[in-house]
């Protein structure tokens, strides 16, 4: 597919269905059943601990930020609050959408609703969108969550470090859904019986945001918006930084996560914010393994995986040149090297690989 049509209603999606790329059987590293059963065991404790830390941190930073407002001394506290609101909530949204963060379902559902609101992602729409992402990961015309399209649009990628395009898109979709409508693409992955729920949630959100905006206007201050809304912009940089590394510069239209996903070793603070999604090959191979067990899963299957990038900076050093080359040739991608202990890739997955220039 040299000309890529990322629309869910376009030619690339039709070809993916015809050629068997859509809903294909993916490669999985073999793990003994007993060991995998243990890794998939859910627990409330780790997620309750992390959620308490998250919301306690948000509360402390917001209270100090309000107390110091409008002094510039409040700025560091708002920036810290923003990262927890506009980035940590991205990973909470993600993990709770899988229902694996907590053992207790209602805890997953509650945090998923809160995180979806913070990220301005309709919880009904995105639950089904993310299911499609896992079924057809980086399959052009089938995956609605491809963050970096080919050729890359660098202006948009950089602007999203400030949440600009994502937030605009979220607001537009929220208002559209609140009017009682869905986009044509949303209708392709949201079951008909679920669609009224998406509309109802959007209407509730519009009321909350309208109330916050009215309060800001009445006070003559953006302070209410610093608590609700604006952190989605100034706190987005961390989730964009880590999110681009998930698949950026790697293969598309393949059915082996070792080819299209990237694992990156990260510092403890980023791992807390990101909720261990830096183990991204592992997560895509086995999405029902809870986030707090991913380091163990990594140790169990690393003999069959490409070597992880050693840091966030190392990941960008690999990804960024590949994105630049895709400006000239959108078929180019980084081919990951496997250890000798790994099962080999199917070579036909690499037909589109471009030799180094």
TrEMBL record:
This is Fatty acid desaturase family protein. The chain crosses the membrane at residues 52-72, 204-228. InterPro entries: FA_desaturase_dom, Fatty_acid_desaturase, Rhizopine-oxygenase-like. Residues 70-310 form the Fatty acid desaturase domain. PANTHER family: DELTA(5) FATTY ACID DESATURASE C-RELATED (PTHR19353:SF19), FATTY ACID DESATURASE 2 (PTHR19353). It holds the Pfam family FA_desaturase. Keywords: Membrane, Transmembrane, Transmembrane helix.
